Amino acid sequence: MADSAATIAAHVRARRLSAVESATAALDAISSADSEIHAFCTIDPDDALNQARDVDDRIAKGDALPLAGVPVAIKDLILTKGLRTTFASPLYARNVPDIDDVSVARLRAAGAIVIGKTNASEFGYGPVGRNKLFATTRNPWNPALTTGGSSAGTGAAVAAGMVPFGLGSDGGGSIRIPAALCGVAGMKASWGRVPLFPGCRDESQPGASSWESLEHIGPLAACGADLALCLSVVGGPTPDDRHSLPLEPGAFAIAPPETLRGLRIAYSGTLGFAKVERDVAERCATAAIKFARDVGATLIEADPPVGDTHEAFDALVALDTDRDGLRRMAAAQDHVFDGALGRLLARDWTAGEFTAAIMARKKVARTMARFMTGFDLLLTPTTACAAYPLEAPEPKGWTPFTALANLTGQPAASVPAGLTGNGRPVGLQIIGRHLADAQVLSACAAFEAILPWAALRPKIAAANRALGASPV
Fold it and tell me: What is the pLDDT of residues 17-37, one digit of tens each?
């Protein structure tokens, strides 16, 4: 799609464009490009068009719909009523939910059209778009490269111009990593701002029930304004999620760039330990300097004193995983887990390891809270490298930056910071103080105005300019 979600919704509300035309354009864009990049794993065109007709009927009756006629992609780890949801695992290959995740229900209520499900790693274990059920997702910038993950398909679908935004989930960076590698924006709000149910709050589905203390749902989008629009729709408490938080007025509102003047911004290029690809390091540092200078903020190089947290993070992921339930299901269906999930299930974890991880998370959260008293924002590279060859082994230590905000629950976004010398997208991560979601969104919007990324579109996207509209 060529237009932003906000623009599409405005056209549909004004009846300059029908929701059916919007859905048809998205389906045509998917048909044109997805055979090459495999962003989507399940699509039901008839259902999408039926949803669109319902939206047009609601508009005709005078309903005010903030997402009227906007086609959205939903990661295959997020439940969609009546539309297959496999969690990217053969164990759930025929699973058709009878309930929407609360975030999906809110999107539908706002007039969005669920256009299809997007590919991921099995149960989200791994920052890739590879599983044993569907074709591996490829990067629209270069189909020989990875998209990152685990919200791989959503990142690819947005980058390729199939949809203006989509939902991903993020337990350790799974929104921000593919956003960075695919050259789009992505954000997880503060933990609890966007409720989760059923998903990781439902004990009845092993694998899908994982990640409870780390998981977030949030948007990947072609522009910063659409991040705020989506979050304003899906955010807010529900009695089904005991961790969900109420929203104050303006919780996701974008403020004018002058409100960022005078901020103190920390920039950490390595978090004190990471090894970062030279091109990525240079692009992120240059972008951070320009951003701070142009908004009138003070930029200070500073590493939060937390160090490498991957051991504690891995243990917390294991603690949140229904290991016995997954083993039983796998044995019953003769399924073998591989990759990160296979290693997790093969390991004999101890209570001592889990207790140490819980204590480590407490220390990290307290340390970051103290660090952020001196800064309004923390900027880092989103990943330590840009997209790498799809068939190559994962580079060691290539995602050192994102899990920090999952451990602390802070709001965090990735925005496009440019391209490497050989044309691979680079992402800059923006982390805010606890519950300062609006400030992160405002920083994203200001960054976009200073370093516009709309012109940075892959060749595949150039072929999918739906409806003949101007680029986002």
Answer: 999 999 999 999 999 999 999
pLDDT of the residue at 155 = 98
Q: What is the DSSP string of 185-237?
A: EEEE-STTSS---SGGG-TTSTTTT--TTT--EEEEESSHHHHHHHHHHH-S-
Are the C-beta atoms of residues 429 and 241 closer than 8 Å to each other?
no
CB 157 within 8 A of CB 166: yes
Element (H, E) at 41: strand 40-42
Maximal CA-CA distance, the chain: 62
Strand locations in 343-445, DSSP E?
Answer: 377-381, 412-419, 425-432
d(CA 428, CA 300): 16
Angle ∠(138,139,143) on CA atoms, nearest 5? 65
Other beta carbons within 10 angstroms of residue 332's beta carbon come to: 9
Place of tokens 């979601």: 437
Active-site choice (4, 75, 169, 209): 75
Q: Would you say the C-alpha torsion 364, 366, 369, 371 has a positive or negative sign?
A: negative
Asked if 301 and 267 count as a contact pair (C-beta separation under 8 A), the reply is yes
Task: Considering the candidates 4, 103, 121, 150, report the single residue annotated as catalytic.
Answer: 150
**Contact at 8 Å (CB) between 240 and 102?**
yes
127: containing domain:
5-468
Active site residue 22: no
Q: What is the overall mean pLDDT for the chain?
A: 96
Distance between CA atoms of residues 78 and 55, nearest Å: 22
CA–CA–CA angle 262, 416, 231 (5° rounding):
75
Task: Give the predicted TM-score (pTM) of the model.
Answer: 0.97
Q: Which of the following is catalytic: 121, 169, 174, 442? A: 174
* Structural domains of the chain, count: 1
Dist. CA 31–CA 52, nearest whole Å: 18
Backbone dihedral region of 280: left (phi > 0), alpha (psi from -120 to 50 degrees) or beta? alpha
pLDDT digits (tens, 9 = 90+) for 452-470: 998 788 988 756 544 333 3
Which CATH number goes with the domain that contains 315? Answer: 3.90.1300.10
The predicted structure's pLDDT at residue 464: 59
448 half-sphere exposure, CB direction, 13 A CA radius: 27
From the list 311, 315, 172, 190, the residue with the least C-alpha distance to 247 is: 190
362 catalytically annotated: no
The C-alpha atoms of residue 383 and residue 279 are separated, in whole angstroms, by 12
- Residue 351's identity, in one-letter code, is A
Burial class (CB in 10 A: 0-12, 13-18, 19+), 68: buried
Strand, helix or coil for residue 38? coil
pLDDT < 50: residue spans in the chain: 465-472
Q: What sign results for the dihedral spanned by CA atoms 62, 66, 70, 76?
A: negative
